[in-house]
Amino acid sequence: MSDDAGPEKIETNKGVNKKKEKSGNPPVIIREMELEDLSEVFALGERLFTADLWPTLYRTWDEYELVQAFATDSETCLVADVGGKVAGFALGTLLDKRRSAWTYGYLVWLGVDPTLGRQGIGKKLVNRLTEIFIEQGARMMLVDTEADNVGAVQFFHSHGFGNDTKHVYMSKNLTHHPEYLRRKKLAAATQVSKHSAGSLQSTAVTLAAGKVAGTAAESVESAALSGPSSEHEAVIKKVATKKAKPKKSEGNSKSRSTKSAIHIQKTEKTRGASRAGKKDETP
């Protein structure tokens, strides 16, 4: 958590804290967080809770944390509005213990724009949230921060928090755990399977498209060959018939040739007979 410190004179008017601002400075208005503020609050948290300064806060601050807090505890989610922009935020919740008369107000997140320091923005947020906790029946207020965040520890001490109980943040790298490795291997195999299935599906689609194109081409070719069935079939049959039957001229020439040969043979025989007769008549 990040904040500035410094005594300020506060005026409370129906839940909205206002400072007697110096001339030229816009007023600081503390109000409930609205839906339109979520993006600005998250962006400010990203700037404050960085991995190099506060690794634990960095790992736990995310948009889901913010949205859940706003959805379940909107009355204890506050922003500091300076000139229409979010200059800080405080996210709190109420904790009810079973079989206990005690209700606890828990300040979960507190952040202030570092460029607007020394304006008492953090103090205004904590004071207003404290009032809301009391209104809702809390008897004790809790807050936690990292032990080496000296500025935050001093700030909370100045606002009446005490009874420090130090706790240790620990972490464990799970990337070498057998279950992690098993799931990683399974995820890789699933990815390869999906890729192979996609390739097979693409190949099947290509083959199907080629088959359809081939069928269409065959249909077009068949249609071109068949053409107008009545006329083309008649012409084809006529041509086939002509090729099958021998030509009449060829047959007539052969018969004529045969007849001529017979006639010539007969003529030669007749001439030979007449010649023989004439020889017999010659003295």
Main β-sheet, in a few words?
A: 5 strands, mixed
pLDDT < 50 runs, ≥5 residues: 2-20, 253-264, 266-283
Task: Report the principal-axis shape.
Answer: elongated
Which percent band covers the strand fraction? 15-25%
Helix content: 40-55%
Distance between the termini: 169 Å
Radius of gyration (CA) equals: 54 Å
Describe this structure in words.
With 283 residues, the protein is α+β, with helices and mostly antiparallel strands. The chain has helices at 38-48, 55-60, 63-72, 121-135, 150-158, 178-226, 229-244, 248-281, and strands at residues 10-13, 16-19, 28-32, 77-82, 85-96, 103-112, 140-143. The strands form two sheets. A five-stranded mixed sheet has the order 3-4-5-6-7, with helices on both faces. The chain has a two-stranded antiparallel sheet with strand order 1-2. The longest helix is centred in the C-terminal third of the chain and has 49 residues, at 178-226. Mean pLDDT is 75; it is low at 2-20, 253-264 and 266-283.
Short description, anyone?
The chain is of the alpha+beta class and 283 residues long.
Q: How is the secondary structure organized here?
A:
Elements: E1 10-13, E2 16-19, E3 28-32, H1 38-48, H2 55-60, H3 63-72, E4 77-82, E5 85-96, E6 103-112, H4 121-135, E7 140-143, H5 150-158, H6 178-226, H7 229-244, H8 248-281
Parallel strand pairs: 6-7
Antiparallel strand pairs: 1-2, 3-4, 4-5, 5-6
